[in-house]
Task: inverse folding
């Protein structure tokens, strides 16, 4: 543990850069404790306080810009990948779309303070065509606010942090073991949270070809689009009714109780669609199925959309 303590003292800036970069790229590692601890060290003059903030901001910007470029090149597909890497529940796409649709690039100012938002906001910004200049300005300011607060807290509570580190150092290898166990518990909890969420959404689904066959045969199931408003404007499955993100918990639905209902979105594992389907089933509807692959699978199959 003494070795780790001195490692942070000597290579704090490098550790901060690597930790923030990995965290913002989606690795399941906590970054705030590192910033708080190094903030306390910098306050005591062990390395320049004025250099710590730029290092943290630079690491965050590099990681975010990588996801921004990925979003520009691959579109919404990259957000599904990012959700899996970050261990965030799949509903993070829905949440991010809702916030970004309302505030645009300005939402990046507080993105890193919102659980499940920061991990995919950069990719979403790239996929919806946010300008590079706007992205870098707002994301840079947001990264400075986020890391600056952690560094400030470290400086403010530097005595208490020093006491904790001293106790861990005195515990020797047992102290290091506690840190490893705490990190393991954090990652395990995130995995358990994600698995529980996905298990809650398990239900029968309908494929895009099955839905297209129903429509071609003259049958008209009740189709519900639960994407954000700006995404719905880009095209919907013919005949789809829309539910905005503000109505997802309170929407009215007056279709026949025994009718076929298809719900679709554009998020990993049809998370938002499955949540709405669960609500409808609780209201008494039994023939409710999310659309496998959502609107992206529908378009990829070459089926028509309406505006």
Result:
């Amino acid at each position: 543990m003494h070795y780790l303590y001195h490692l942070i003292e000597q290579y704090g800036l490098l550790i901060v850069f690597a930790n923030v970069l990995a965290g913002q790229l989606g690795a399941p590692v906590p970054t705030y404790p590192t910033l708080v601890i190094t903030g306390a060290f910098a306050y005591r003059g062990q390395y320049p306080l004025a250099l710590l903030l730029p290092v943290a901001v630079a690491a965050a910007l590099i990681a975010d810009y990588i996801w921004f470029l990925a979003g520009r090149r691959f579109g919404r597909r990259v957000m599904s990948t990012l959700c899996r890497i970050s261990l965030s529940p799949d509903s993070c796409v829905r949440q991010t779309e809702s916030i970004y649709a309302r505030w645009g690039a300005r939402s990046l100012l507080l993105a890193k303070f919102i659980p499940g938002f920061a991990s995919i906001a950069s990719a979403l910004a790239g996929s919806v065509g946010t300008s590079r200049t706007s992205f870098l300005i707002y994301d840079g300011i947001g990264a400075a606010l986020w890391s600056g607060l952690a560094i400030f807290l470290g400086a403010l509570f530097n005595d208490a942090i020093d006491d904790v580190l001293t106790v861990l150092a005195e515990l020797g290898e047992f102290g290091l073991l506690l840190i490893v166990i705490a990190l393991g518990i954090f990652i395990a909890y995130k995995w358990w949270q994600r698995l529980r969420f996905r298990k809650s959404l398990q239900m029968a689904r309908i494929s895009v070809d099955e839905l297209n066959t129903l429509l071609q045969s003259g049958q008209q199931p009740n189709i519900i689009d639960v994407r954000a408003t700006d995404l719905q404007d880009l095209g919907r499955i013919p005949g789809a009714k829309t539910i905005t993100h503000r109505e997802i918990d309170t929407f009215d639905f007056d279709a026949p109780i025994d009718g076929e209902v298809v719900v679709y979105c554009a998020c990993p594992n049809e998370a938002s669609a499955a949540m709405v389907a669960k609500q409808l089933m609780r209201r008494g509807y039994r023939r409710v199925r999310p659309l496998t692959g959502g609107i992206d699978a529908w378009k990829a199959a070459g089926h028509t959309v309406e505006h």
About this structure: The mean pLDDT is 78. Residues 173-200 form the longest helix (28 residues).
